[in-house]
Amino acid sequence: MKNSIIHGKLIYKVGDSSTYGVNCGAYPRHNFIDNPLGLQGDPFAVYAAGSDEWIPGCERTRICSDVSSFELVDEGVMSYKSPRGVFQIPEQHVFLVHYQEDSEMQALSDRVLKRTIIMPGSISAQIIDAMGLKYVDVIDVSGDKEIGEYFTRITELLTAQEPGFSVKASELSFGLTLKLSNLNRTRGYPPELSRILELVHTNISHNFSLRELSDFAGTSPRTLNNMFTKFFGQSPIDYILHHRIRVAERYLLDYQRRIKEIANDLGYANQFYFARDFKKRTGISPSEFRNKKQSSTLENEKK
């Protein structure tokens, strides 16, 4: 996370993705079951599933996560930081770790028990995005027993490893994603905010003003600004600019696509303004970002 302070030692690194952590004795205690088949024959496979226990002082920081994950808090309260803000996650809430995003998590209560489903990054990200969860961090699942049953059943499948278990786990993972998407629509953002998010995400090249957005939502600029600050920790315009850069990062991974073309598709007057904004928000230029990603991909292919 840009400007974040990384605590702890390096635990895991692959390509541009790194995980740092602070342990407290034996905590956090992870009881994860890996899928030995990986992606074989199933592009939406579950990588791993299981439970973990945390106490205060334990921390994890992910830089450019190479996976997506759903994390269900069963007991206690977690702190979770994403590019959109810092959230306190109580019991019966799911928080989402997104592919290629930075995040931080730690226990806030004396004991935290949670369950985790980990999925391959690039493919799961496409599904999550298609279901409207790309910029969602927390979902209230209280009172919905099916959510917990999804986590339990997927873990059981990976534990037993009976014939066809990986495909069944994948199907359940897809069902869980769909269920979370439906819950988010019914329990998530206020209707006005949902309309604005849909407008912004489907009109990425338009340079909206705060007045345009508030008129579309049927609220005052002040009310709209307060809603964005509450849910995302930033103003509507900052959210749009941040979203535009995240989209730009995905476009830059298409190495055949010219940077000038990307700048135009994102609504920038020219390539110079795009490069200036991109570097301001990421610390590197679009060309540096693309070259870094391309080099990382080539290195991984050689391994």
Report on the architecture of this protein.
With 303 residues, this protein is α+β, with helices and mostly antiparallel strands. The chain folds into 2 domains: 9-187, Jelly Rolls (Sandwich), CATH 2.60.120; 191-302, Homeodomain-like (Arc Repressor Mutant, subunit A, Orthogonal Bundle), CATH 1.10.10.60. Helices cover 44% and strands 23% of the residues. It has 10 helices and 12 strands. The chain has helices at residues 121-130, 145-160, 165-187, 191-202, 210-217, 221-232, 236-252, 259-265, 271-282, 286-302; strands spanning 9-14, 17-22, 29-34, 48-54, 59-63, 67-75, 78-82, 85-89, 93-97, 103-107, 112-120, 138-140. The strands form 2 sheets. The chain has a 6-stranded antiparallel beta sheet, with no helix packed on it. A 6-stranded antiparallel beta sheet has the order 3-4-11-6-9-12. Strand 7 and strand 8 (85-89) form a beta hairpin. Helix 2 (145-160) packs antiparallel against helix 3 and helix 8 crosses helix 9 (271-282). The longest helix has 23 residues, at 165-187. The radius of gyration is 20 Å and the shape is globular. The relative contact order is 0.11.
- CATH structural architecture of the largest domain: Sandwich
Classification by helices and strands: alpha+beta
Roughly what is the average pLDDT, rounded to an integer? Answer: 87
Classified by CATH, the class of the largest domain is Mainly Beta
- For the record, the count of structural domains works out to 2
Strand order of the largest sheet: 1-2-5-10-7-8
CATH topology of the largest domain: Jelly Rolls
Report the biggest beta sheet as strand number plus sense, adding barrel if it closes.
6 strands, antiparallel
Radius of gyration: 20 Å
Assembly type of the shown chains? Answer: single chain
How many H/I helices?
Answer: 10
Beta strands, count: 12
| N-to-C order of helices and strands | EEEEEEEEEEEHEHHHHHHHHH
What's the end-to-end separation, in Å? 27 Å
Contiguous low-pLDDT stretches (5 residues minimum) are 1-5
**Share of helix among residues?**
40-55%
Amount of beta strand: 15-25%
